[in-house]
Amino acid sequence: MDLHLWATFFAVNLLASLSPGPGAVAAMNAGLAQGSRGGWRLVLGLQLALLLQLSVVALGAGALLAASEGTFQVLRWGGAAYLIWLGLAQWRVAWMAVAHAREAGTVWPAEGLIWRGVLVNLSNPKAVLFMAALVPQFIDTARPLVWQYLLIAVTMCGVDALVMGAYATLAAHLRPWFESARLVRWRNFLFGSVFILLGGALLGLEAPS
């Protein structure tokens, strides 16, 4: 991959990472709940999921997913259910915060943040279809594929980690402003609502044609 092609790939991934989505919402929520360190733990999980999704594309399974409406529907419903479950869990904690304000952060325990990041990124099957459409455009089949996919993986995960980490770090710096019982309650209600809306939007996706 020459420098011009790599720069184009970098720019596309930067724009994709900057666009609001479940990963950005989860990173900010983790930063607010567990601070910068907790936020970066979730970001690590997001990148592990990206590597798994890229591996699926590299092995050719992305094309099978695009061709299989049934598989796509199962993954879509599963991902939507997970996001909606996250939202409802946030709502439950927001409701409990009326009497137990300090329990409001326990919906995002530090020990499970890496796994939660993995599940958040895996919740959207469209991400695999996006990679399956994007990545082959930057692959030169006349050159060794391993090194090209390695460069793509480093670029994709590096860009996404920096952007998601910035979201988490910014949220962590805003954490002192959200420590009052009233704001903790509304924070959980807001993020819960966003997760439920993202889950609903995932349900509205059309299967690949």
- Class of secondary structure makeup: mainly alpha
- What series of H and E elements makes up the topology? HHHHHHHH
Quote the beta fraction.
Answer: under 5%
Main sheet: strands, sense, barrel: none
**How would you sum up the global shape?**
globular
Question: pLDDT average, as an integer?
Answer: 76
As a whole number of angstroms, the C-alpha radius of gyration is 18 Å
How many separate helices?
Answer: 8
Overall tally of domains: 1
Unreliable stretches (pLDDT < 50, length at least 5) are: 101-105
What proportion of the residues is helical, as a percent range? over 70%
Distance between the termini: 30 Å
Quantity of strands, as a count: 0
Structure in words:
Residues 101-105 have low confidence and may be disordered. This protein has one domain (3-8, 23-203). The protein is built from eight helices and no strands. The protein has 209 residues and is an all-alpha fold. It has helices spanning 3-18, 22-58, 61-67, 69-96, 113-122, 126-134, 145-174, 181-203. Helix content is 77%, strand content 0%. α1 (3-18) runs parallel beside α7 (145-174), α2 packs across α5 and α2 (22-58) packs across α6.
